[in-house]
Amino acid sequence: WTDGLSTAYLLQDQLGKLGYDVKMKTLTEAGPLYAGLAQGDVDLYPSAWPELTHAEYMTKYADSIEDLGAYYDNAKLTIAVPEYSNIDSIEDLAGKGADFGGKIVGIEPGAGLTKQTVKMLSAYGLDSEYSLLTSSTAAMLTELKAATEKQEDIVVTLWRPFWANDAFPVKDLEDPKGAMGEAEGLHFLGTKGFAKEFPEAAALIEKIRLDDEQYGSLEDLVVNQYGEGREADAVDAWLERNGDRLGWVVD
Q1: Neighbours of 205 (CB within 10 A)
Q2: Could you report how far apart the first and last alpha carbons of the chain are, in Å?
Q3: Residue from 24, 75, 83 nearest 54 by CA
Q4: Taking the alpha carbons of 215, 216, 217, 222 in that order, is the dihedral positive or negative?
Q5: Cis peptide before 161 (omega within 30 of 0)
Q6: Paired residues of 105 in beta bridges
Q7: Are 63 and 206 in contact (CB under 8 A)?
């Protein structure tokens, strides 16, 4: 998920300025990521959803993981359709399966969002009418882009904050049953003993807070405006625009 990408490069910049040598490791599935964190193969996870979406992993590895603090407090899993769609609620999907090809386009099979969507389909009695198509976030976005460019019907799994909500003409479907879960925080997690081994890093991480505008602009710069290979430049540009308003920035 790109929230992890943008905050990872932000941490690499800030911790690097404190003298740490930060190496990146890309893991796209939550299960292996939490296992790596618990085993000490990964020191930091920069975009965890431990309160609800990843709660099962936190329960499983609670004794081997440290919560270093929440930096964003309004993260949400969503089911979305194009703005031009005439449905506004997940309940409205019932009986409309043929309009959407009988599928909801999802992301990685092991994602917390995927597991929550399976629960949602059951809660709304949609599991006999729709199948959840899983592959990758990139593949989902490709299908979303193609559908909206052609003004076609599509249902996708999304989340907030995520740059795609602004980049594409989409709207969240209302969730009267609350089957996609409540809003939760995005956290930095460390392997057990991280704060003791790296106290200066932990102290900085604990101070980081981002509001909607700050988070959205960081992700947009890293993912869209600068892109792959220029993430460090994107963070520099973001800090130049926002640094004066943030009390935790390392110059």
Answers
A1: 24
A2: 28
A3: 75
A4: positive
A5: yes
A6: 133, 156
A7: no
Contact in structure between 65 and 155 (CB atoms under 8 Å)? no
Find all residues with CB under 8 Å of 50, minimum gap 6, and list them. 57, 58, 67, 187, 189
Decide: 43 and 138 in contact? Cβ < 8 Å. Answer: no
Residues in the chain: 251
Name the pTM for this structure: 0.82
Hey, how many other C-beta atoms are within 10 angstroms of the C-beta on 142? 13
Profile the chain (251 residues) by mean pLDDT over runs of 10 residues: 82 96 89 95 94 94 96 95 97 97 95 95 97 95 98 97 91 98 96 97 96 90 92 96 92 84
The residues near 209 (Cβ < 8 Å, ≥ 6 apart) are: 71, 72, 248
Pair of tokens at residue 15? 């911790």
Alpha-carbon gap, residue 96 to 99, rounded angstroms: 5
CA distance 129 to 90: 13
Antiparallel, parallel or unpaired: β 131-133 and 103-105: parallel
* Cα(77)–Cα(172) distance, integer angstroms: 10
Q: Are 53 and 113 in contact (CB under 8 A)?
A: yes
Residue identified by tokens 């009695």 is 125
Print burial letters for 29-42: b (CB count within 10 Å at least 16), e (below 16): ebeebbbbbbeeeb
Q: How far is it, in rounded angstroms, from Cα 28 to Cα 31?
A: 9
> Distance between alpha carbon 127 and the CA centroid of its chain, in Å?
25
What stretch of H or E contains 154?
Answer: none
